[in-house]
Amino acid sequence: MNLNAKRLLEINTVLLLTFICVFSLLLPAYAENETEAQVNNGTLTLSMDEVVRLTIRNNSNVATKYLQRVTEKFDLEKAEAKFEPVINIDGSFNAEAFQRNMRISDNGTQTPASKWDAGAKASITQKIPTGGTLSFVWDNNYSENSDGTLSYDGDSAVSRSKTYTREASSKWRIELTQPLLKGAGIDYNMASIRLARITDKRNILSLRDNLSQLINSGLNYYFTFKQAKENLEIQQQALERSERLLEVNQFKQSMGRMSASDVVQAEADVASGRLSLEEARNSLDKARRDLLNHLEMDPNLEIEPIDDEIRDVEPDYEQCMQVALKNNQTYMDKVFAVTESNINAMMAENEREWQLDLKGGYEETQTQKNSYSASTSDDELSAGVELSAPINLWGDDQLERKKKLLTAEVNKRKAKLELKRAKTNLQTEVANAVRDVRMRWKMIRLAQKNTELKALQLENENTKLMVGRTTNFEVVSYQNQLVQAQLAETSKQISYVQALLILDQLLGTTMETWHVEFKHNDKQLEEDLNNKIRPLVWTWW
Questions:
Q1: What phi and psi values does residue 242 have, to the nearest 5 degrees?
Q2: Which residues of 507-526 are buried (b: 16+ CB within 10 A; e: fewer)?
Q3: If you ran DSSP here, which 8-state letter would residue 159 be given?
Q4: Phi and psi (nearest 5°) for 253?
């Protein structure tokens, strides 16, 4: 096998990566070969696609994020239920029985007595977007009492009697309260829901970003493993060259054409190569275990990576910025902060006003005492206004009032400045990332050319050594230079694919790049948790 064929074989074993952005205008599509990870005889065959899918499927941090998402989604549901009716039913029951002993002079009696009462109350409260509250209350009560008494009527007359009372009442009331100043208005009353929705959007972006970071971590572990594997192969090839050189030198020494001192250089190079080979094996085993730990798989598995074709990606800055301004989490967080500060400022201005409420209501009560008495009925219609007008001229209350307004205005301006700064930072980061991708591709080509030249230099030096036109030291030096060139080429490959990952993370398109469906929540997990707690929600004993 000639040198060019050997070199081609070495290049084909270098770490390869395919990268695209979700937007086809930015990056070329990468091969969509969705192969499933297979384990044969304790060896796990892995591609980049499978690293991504195994990360999403196996890594427990993914499950943790989706568990947290269940409570976050419920917080939004709770906030959006603000204008849904609140219905409560309260019931009460009390029963007592006792024996009463009574005595007057020498007369006495034992009388059983009892009392019991029951009540049921239903209430419906409905908040409306204008700030008003509509409420309905229906209160029902029933009680019975039985008792015995002794009374002294004269010189010796003592009478015994039993009493029995019963009372039932039913009352219902409907009432409307509508603020006219403080607490009034659709904007003010919808503010809490708008803030909750913004928080939920921020949580969704955070979930997407966390999943993207897990994917990138898995890919980086994979790249580190492939780099360690390539490094091991390079060190093995270097050791083989050193051993062949040592054999040649020992043969020349036996023929009297080389001194023993010259052979020492080759022997030292072999010893150094064996040390480097052991270090490479240790690094490979560590990288293998780190990758399997991230994938949460059997740490004793061996890994066989699949080589992929590398491609030149030339992202366009303007198009990248358009994507980043819509997807970048850090920038979107500042956009949300501006909206939140405007809402909070509006609420602070509303809450400084006096409390002026318009009230109206109707109430009806029906009562019946004992079976022989007639029932009574009362009704009441009411309407009016209620004003609470604190006038804080000086002191803590006035300063606190001023502080709230001042803080709200400061936060508004601060949020706008931070948004402007965030956009500038994003422009710089995207520009650097785009330039870095282009530059590292050029460095790959330069590193490949350097490796080819170093290999050619070594071949020429070996030819010179055979005819005695160079020293053993020079050959060993060129061997070391070739090893360093090969390692540098592998490092440039890793740097290139990492630059692509960084750009993808900035654009917020990692999930789309790897064709991973981004779910805002895990519906099956949510259903399982709700089924678990549902019996506890609807039972009270």
A1: -65, -40
A2: bbbbbbbbebeeeeebeeeb
A3: E
A4: -65, -40
| Ramachandran quadrant class, 380 (left: phi over 0; alpha: psi -120 to 50; beta: rest) | beta
| pLDDT of amino acid 145 | 82
**DSSP category for residue 521:** S
- Please check whether residue 21 lies inside any domain of the structure: yes
Indicate if 451 and 407 belong to the same structural domain. Answer: yes
CB 139 within 8 A of CB 323: no
Give first-to-last CA distance, the chain, whole Å. Answer: 83
Residues 18 and 100 in one domain: no
Angstrom distance (rounded) from CA 466 to CA 449 = 26
> Considering only CA atoms, which of 494, 351, 341, 493 is closest in space to residue 419?
341
Task: Please give the pLDDT value at position 52.
Answer: 92
Judgement on whether residues 283 and 326 belong to the same structural domain of the protein: yes
pLDDT at position 222 over 60: yes
Q: In angstroms, rounded to a whole number, what is the distance separating the alpha carbons of residues 12 and 18? A: 15
The pTM of the full predicted model, rounded to 2 decimals, is: 0.76
Contact between residue 361 and residue 176 where contact means Cβ atoms under 8 Å apart: yes
Asked, for residue 350, whether it belongs to a domain, the answer is no
DSSP state letter for 13 = T
pLDDT for 37 equals: 56
Classify residue 371 by its DSSP letter.
T
Q: Do residues 194 and 178 both lie within one domain? A: no
Into how many domains does the chain fold?
A: 2
Asked whether residue 396 is assigned to any structural domain, the reply reads no
- In what order do the strands lie in the sheet containing 43-46? 38-40, 43-46, 302-305
Q: Does 537 map to a domain?
A: no
User: What is the domain-level CATH number for residue 243?
Assistant: 1.20.1600.10
Q: How far apart are CA 485 and CA 488, in angstroms?
A: 5
| Average pLDDT, integer, range 79-102 | 80
For residues 495-501, average pLDDT: 88
How wide is the angle at C-alpha 461 spanned by C-alphas 456 and 464, nearest 5°? 130
Taking CA atoms, 285 is separated from 55, 218, 226, 402, 422, in Å, by: 20, 16, 11, 64, 42
- The rounded distance, in Å, linking the Cα atoms of 131 and 181 is 10
Residues 437, 419 share a domain: yes
Check whether residue 142 and residue 212 sit in a common domain: no
The answer to whether 116 and 143 have CB atoms below 8 angstroms apart is: yes
∠346-351-356 over CA atoms, to 5°? 125
Domain containing 138 equals: 88-127+132-182+356-389
Q: Are residues 15 and 143 in the same domain?
A: no
Spatial neighbors of 101 by CB under 8 A, at least 6 apart, are 108, 109, 110
Whether residues 53 and 104 share a domain: the answer is: no
